[in-house]
């Protein structure tokens, strides 16, 4: 929901939103992100795209 708001109301692109969301991580989530994920895993999460039943990317659907 927050990501959609940034895209719609502030003209941010998805890659600009991730650092904003990451700054809000606390506790277990912060530890998981900082200490347990590799750089490659973080990049896969950051660039993940939802796919439809045919395996095609869904870009315009509200998440």
From TrEMBL:
Highest taxon in the source lineage: Eukaryota
Q: Where is the DUF7746 domain?
A: 1-50
Q: Which InterPro entries match?
A: DUF7746 (IPR056648)
Q: Which Pfam families match?
A: DUF7746
The protein, known as: PREDICTED: EUTSA_v10024111mg partial
Source species: Prunus dulcis (Almond)
Give the lineage: Eukaryota, Viridiplantae, Streptophyta, Embryophyta, Tracheophyta
């Amino acid at each position: 929901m927050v990501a959609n708001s940034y895209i719609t109301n502030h003209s941010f692109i998805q890659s600009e939103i991730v650092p904003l969301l990451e700054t809000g991580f606390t506790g277990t989530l912060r530890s998981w992100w900082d200490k347990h994920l590799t750089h490659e895993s973080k990049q896969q999460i950051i660039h993940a795209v939802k796919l439809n039943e045919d395996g095609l990317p869904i870009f315009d659907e509200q998440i």
